[in-house]
């Protein structure tokens, strides 16, 4: 029985011990791993909200401010703490080293070592509201966005942030995603929020929305068409750069939380209750399947080792042969 | 033997002829036999009265008797049991072996069983939950708010369209895993039982409910549909049924013992007398239990067996001595008085050793174990009268002429050739072999005993056999549904800042609970964790149109209160009415002791690493696994004390009997070896140290010491009269060895019958006691004299005036 105790202590020590170097040279406000965590994080038991690639590494973020790293395409994961204990909702990397993760409670942390250590950047202006996502726009530029229309951008790889107004002073819908499409940035969010920016996100113009419900994400298909998706399985597609939108019917009312254009051009949207919608025609039609466990997905990344999904059951591979139709 | 002619008082002609010893035993014997008629009548009267009282005895199984009430976890358990104890639930699952639940026929059966359960006596009807009850709804978030409906519509008739609709509604709901299997091959009906029978107002008869449930199973389990039933009531019913089976074993043990006794003694009368004197203490014990405010429970129901076996063993020593006397020409009365005088001291000492051995079990701070200890102690204590007094009196009325006695073809002297051969064991030349074997066994035992686990090692309900139907059903339901039957409940107790304060909407409090729930979910051995924090997170996601990134604990009090408000609708599942106690239900994958202790260690580590604050503390523990955790800790704490006290008290008794530390060591060391071997056997058989196996060592040592006491009492006696150790050893074996071996075998068979019990804890006890009873006799016969060869000189006990041994 003592063995258990010591392994628990070792696990705790391992967690406290992340990045001793960074902790030594930075001021106290920087890397301080989640205090009081005595257990070893099980990558299948942590609620994860987003995943991104940092070079060859996979980085996924979620519950209690934890970050999970995988250097073997998603086969094994190790947890590192961050200086925040609120759920991290989004993560984006500029390159293999530099990245930003955001979360609830105005949490924003950045890393310069591929996610090993994280430093908190205070976002006093928006406390205690939620950040819901972050995107890397290249050249050291990042955009972070969240609840009540909060939108910030950074041009120094996430060290400092400037608030930008979205659409108007009165605008206060939750923002779900910022999508770069060529020189245009698209923005989707709560209650049909749809906007575009031609100046890298400094100013935003509202676009007539095809839907009154909430969008949770957007992506650009290989043929250049734009796909919006969101609550109750709603999908809208525009093949003309956002001028007109066509609804794409799928036979479910489960929400779609995230999507990805795979290397072979297929589009994969994942959602609640284990929903997996796949399109082989750039989003004109989708084939709906479900994970057998029925647990929700909130992110998907494709790696050489396979499709990695994150969500209620942590991080794991999506095995298409295990999916069921209903 | 120092005999003297004495004229006995009283008018009993037979007694007047008998010579009695001059010491106090002789005087006691003279008084007893002089008044044998009155004592016999008194014994008969007592037996009748106690027999009547025993007939009023009922088997009870109070739950609180089985828990260590003074353990700190149990303070939490008792304080919050009322709020969060969880109702007495019954779960009936129907499984389609050849498909999913979305088939017309299966849904029809599910509807019928739902109705059967609904109308079952004792079922709280509003609590019945299945796909066919109106309380099972789905809720979905739509563009302008929430929308919901019944999963199975009221007009459901099983059309393909309706079946598709059911499946879709189900997927929108959170009922998968709760009343529908994760793989959708099974569906469940959940119902809560009322405390009291609605018709009579009496406490609900759980066995009756269990019987009715079994009838439902019989009716619907066919054609590819299987029925699986679990719940406290069903478990209790099955355990009670198993406990009733014990009576069969008692019958078997009685018959086997009777046959063996007859084979051994060759006399129907002696067999009958021995059996009578083995049954009488059982009757006395059962009659005395109500006097002492005790009852019988599934564990102590085994004590009467044990008493019967021990009584047979002592009766055999007595009839054996009596027969040896008659073979040497004594008449019935003389043989009885001599047997009494020879055997009263070693017999009473052995019984007192039993009593002490059983008494120390009461060190375990668990009521059911205490009562076992008291029951067994009373049992052996009354045996001093029934076996040491009543039996000689009865035998004194048995008049057998010596020539007839010789014709009784008993086996009393059958072992003499063997005992002669064993003689060298009590000499240094040969004794080292036995000691070496003993040391090898000791080394082996210690190496194995290190693997001994505390607590239960199996799955399912530990009282029942692992392959019992109930435990199979537990396995089926837990593997197909997201339902845990093994629940460790930790109560987060939050301090309210003032009377108006609701700590459970305070983020500082909730954040700790969120952290605790999260960390416990990571722990190996934990299946799922449910608490208010997770519920609020889910509700927040629902309010944010189900977007996955909104599953979080809100920052503001008002938003937390919104989620908590929904929890209030679920009664006290997630918090008490004052919002100061919040249970965290940790469902474990099993209830093995290593699983439990690992989780408990992690909880304690969490508390110490800042989990407990001045606002909220996490209190261990409730739920069935919480009780097991406390029980395991109590058993672990008691184990060494029980063994220490046991050997100390047995050693003291041996010292009083022998007045020799050397002889005491000779008797005690083999017992210690067998105790180690018993622990090794437990480790090898995967039997854990727990409430029911902890008393086994004490019972085994308490009974095992008898052999040593009987043998060495005689050895010392013979050595006092000038015999060498080796001769005394052979002589003692001739007088008592055969009887000892015989009783060891009968007792082993008797307790061995428990192995076939439907109740696992009885089976475990049976195996271990059988082992202790059998192996202890070999320790006493083979190892103890070998030790004596090194510890004792031939003239160690020789008195000043050596005399020839009395045969």
Topology:
The complex is a heterodimer of chains A (326) and B (807).
Chain A: H1 2-16, H2 20-25, E1 48-54, E2 57-62, E3 67-70, E4 78-80, E5 88-93, E6 99-103, E7 107-111, E8 119-120, E9 131-138, E10 141-146, E11 151-154, E12 162-163, E13 175-181, E14 184-189, E15 194-197, E16 205-206, E17 215-220, E18 226-230, E19 235-238, E20 246-248, E21 256-261, E22 267-271, E23 275-279, E24 287-290, E25 297-303, E26 306-311, E27 314-317
Antiparallel strand pairs in A: 1-2, 2-3, 3-4, 5-6, 6-7, 7-8, 9-10, 10-11, 11-12, 13-14, 14-15, 15-16, 17-18, 18-19, 19-20, 21-22, 22-23, 23-24, 25-26, 26-27
Chain B: E1 3-4, H1 13-16, E2 20-21, H2 24-34, H3 36-54, H4 72-84, E3 89-96, H5 104-118, E4 123-129, E5 137-142, E6 145-150, H6 160-172, E7 186-193, H7 206-220, E8 225-231, H8 232-244, H9 246-265, H10 268-291, H11 303-327, H12 332-359, H13 367-396, H14 402-407, H15 416-422, H16 428-449, H17 469-480, E9 487-494, H18 507-522, E10 526-530, H19 532-543, H20 557-568, E11 581-588, H21 593-611, E12 616-622, H22 623-658, H23 661-685, H24 694-720, H25 725-752, H26 760-791
Antiparallel strand pairs in B: 1-2, 3-7, 3-8, 4-7, 5-6, 9-11, 9-12, 10-11
Helix pairs in contact in B: 2-12, 3-10, 3-13, 4-22, 7-8, 9-10, 9-11, 9-25, 10-11, 10-13, 11-12, 11-13, 11-25, 12-13, 12-22, 12-24, 15-25, 16-23, 16-26, 18-21, 19-20, 21-22, 22-23, 22-24, 23-24, 23-26, 24-25, 24-26, 25-26
Q: Could you explain the architecture of this structure?
A:
The complex is a heterodimer of chains A (326) and B (807). With 326 residues, chain A is mainly beta. Chain A has one domain: YVTN repeat-like/Quinoprotein amine dehydrogenase (Methylamine Dehydrogenase, Chain H). Helix content of chain A is 6%, strand content 40%. Chain A has helices at residues 2-16, 20-25, and strands at residues 48-54, 57-62, 67-70, 78-80, 88-93, 99-103, 107-111, 119-120, 131-138, 141-146, 151-154, 162-163, 175-181, 184-189, 194-197, 205-206, 215-220, 226-230, 235-238, 246-248, 256-261, 267-271, 275-279, 287-290, 297-303, 306-311, 314-317. In chain A, the strands form seven sheets. Chain A has a four-stranded antiparallel β-sheet with strand order 1-2-3-4, with no helix packed on it. In chain A, 53% of the residues are buried. Chain B is of the alpha+beta class. Chain B contains 26 helices and twelve strands. Chain B has helices spanning 13-16, 24-34, 36-54, 72-84, 104-118, 160-172, 206-220, 232-244, 246-265, 268-291, 303-327, 332-359, 367-396, 402-407, 416-422, 428-449, 469-480, 507-522, 532-543, 557-568, 593-611, 623-658, 661-685, 694-720, 725-752, 760-791, and strands at 3-4, 20-21, 89-96, 123-129, 137-142, 145-150, 186-193, 225-231, 487-494, 526-530, 581-588, 616-622. In chain B, the strands form four sheets. A four-stranded antiparallel β-sheet of chain B has the order 4-7-3-8, sandwiched between helices. In chain B, a hairpin with a 2-residue loop joins strand 5 and strand 6 (145-150). In chain B, helix 9 (246-265) packs antiparallel against helix 25 (725-752), helix 11 (303-327) packs antiparallel against helix 12 (332-359) and helix 25 (725-752) packs antiparallel against helix 26 (760-791). Chain B is elongated, with a radius of gyration of 33 Å.
